[in-house]
Design the sequence.
């Protein structure tokens, strides 16, 4: 599925939920880097347990599968790394929703998000530096080399507009020095 198709399915409903959110992950790396296929839309959101019912109401059955309200509320109660999925049943499009909680990197990302125009709508998107740091974190947690390839592509495309020294410093502050070094070692 094209990133624009994923955004068309989910963005209006995230907006209607009245929460802070942004596109992150693979779709964000495509915007800032190089085209590739992606099967899902990664969203970082600030969602409280009290907002769970309103959020779930934006994704009615049978058009969507949405995690039960109780699950969303439980995940929203976590200090960090809360997560659930929403699926558009007709297309199989999936949004992986990562909840910011008290996580420093996620909160920083939401505060620094940007907006872009896609499909005639304004869409919030993670700043490229935060996409890079999140992808290094996913790599640290055992994710595939795809995250490092995405980071390398973003660095190649964005070039001098990114402060690599500041990124290396931020990676170190977040305990991602080894992942930054691994990314640099495979650099083109």
Sequence:
């Amino acid at each position: 599925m094209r990133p624009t198709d994923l955004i068309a399915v989910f963005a209006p409903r995230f907006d209607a939920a009245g929460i802070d959110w942004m596109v992150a992950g693979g779709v964000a790396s495509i915007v800032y880097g190089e085209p590739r296929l992606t099967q899902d839309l990664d969203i970082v959101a600030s969602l409280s347990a009290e907002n769970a019912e309103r959020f779930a109401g934006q994704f009615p059955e049978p058009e969507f599968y949405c995690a039960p309200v109780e699950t969303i509320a439980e995940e929203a109660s976590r200090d960090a790394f809360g997560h659930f999925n929403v699926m558009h049943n007709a297309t199989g499009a999936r949004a992986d929703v990562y909840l910011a909680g008290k996580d420093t990197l996620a909160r920083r990302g939401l505060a620094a998000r940007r907006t872009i125009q896609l499909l005639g709508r304004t869409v919030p998107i993670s700043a490229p530096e935060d996409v890079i740091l999140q992808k290094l974190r996913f790599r640290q947690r055992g994710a595939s080399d795809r995250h490092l390839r995405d980071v390398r592509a973003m660095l190649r495309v964005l070039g001098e507009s990114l402060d690599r020294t500041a990124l290396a410093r931020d990676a170190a502050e977040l305990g991602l020095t080894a992942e930054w070094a691994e990314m640099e070692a495979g650099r083109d």
Notes: The first helix runs from residue 3 to 16. The radius of gyration is 16 Å. The CA atoms of residues 85 and 96 lie 5 Å apart. The mean pLDDT is 91.
